[in-house]
Amino acid sequence: MDQISCHRLERTQRTFERPFTATSHEYDAGARQARRSHDQAQLVFTTSGVLRVATPIGMWTLGPHRGLWLAPRVGHELIATSAVRMHRVVFEPQASPWPESACHAVRVSSLLRELVVAMVEDRERNAQCRHALITPLLLSEMRQSREASGAGLPLPLDRRLRQICDVLLADPANGDSLSVWGERVGASERTLARLFKDETGLTFGHWRQQLRIVEAVSKLAQGVRVAEIAAELGYANASAFITMFRKTMGETPQRYLKSEPR
User: pLDDT tens per residue, the chain (262 residues)?
Assistant: First the structure.
């Protein structure tokens, strides 16, 4: 690109005054970033490793090709379940590609990933011209990205439901029925079933299955064998786990992990 065209792009971009910025961070396995919130919306994703993001009403596990759109002023905690290299893009309000205030998982294409990596490099070199070129392309790529399945798990607010969920989060293989849980937390099975549906949008059975999917995706991204994952999640054998995973996700665990968004 000639120098005149570059200057024109820079002048156009000044109307936004850097509509978004990108940074890169590395965390050791087991590292936690205390809960915080930001006035701006963010996109976070990993280029290596698995990152878990927890908010008051949901938890997301981010592995290959999957990121999370964090809405403004949503408290969130980061947990590295393995050694992680994370990228973060912070958006000013006028540049937000999505108007909604809810958090949601997105599929991160190769192009989107490389654009963010280039922005991190440009931040270090202060390369204004390339940043001006990247800005419209990155916004366009984000607007075309699709929501990622298998990454998120809604969390209820009710004290009794959170008691149940906390146990299951620590032990996803737990197969206790809702009637058994009712005796432990002091509520009827019918009440708990209604609350689960009202607060998470899922039945108790579907919520527990989604928890196991989230755990499976995390372990797959860490290189754990399917047979080990099946045993840890309480399935009789690998075939039963693969059948559940394919029915829920539309493909086998191996294909899901290798699949890359177009």
Answer: 444 444 444 444 444 456 888 999 999 988 999 899 988 999 999 988 889 999 988 999 887 778 999 999 999 999 998 888 999 999 988 888 877 678 888 989 999 999 999 888 876 665 567 778 888 899 899 888 877 776 789 999 999 999 999 999 989 999 999 999 999 999 999 999 999 999 999 999 999 999 999 888 888 877 889 999 999 998 989 999 999 998 888 888 888 766 554 4
| Total structural domains within the chain | 2
Q: Are residues 136 and 192 in the same domain?
A: no
Is 150 part of any domain? Answer: no
User: How far apart are the C-alpha atoms of 26 and 34, rounded to whole Å?
Assistant: 15
Residue 78 and residue 43 share a domain: yes
pTM over 0.85: no
Find out whether 151 and 60 touch, Cβ atoms under 8 Å: yes
Q: What's the one-letter identity of residue 175?
A: G
Q: How far apart are CA 175 and CA 93, in angstroms?
A: 44
- How many alpha carbons fall within 13 Å on the CB side of residue 130? 14
Specify the amino acid at residue 236: A
Residues 15, 100, single domain; the answer is yes
Nearest to 155 by CA among 77, 233, 69, 80: 77
| 138 within 8 A of 112, measured Cβ to Cβ | yes
107 is a domain residue: yes
Residue 31 lies in domain: 3-144
Residue 164 sits in the same domain as residue 252: yes
Residue 184 vs residues 158, 175, 190, 203: alpha-carbon distances, Å: 15, 14, 14, 19
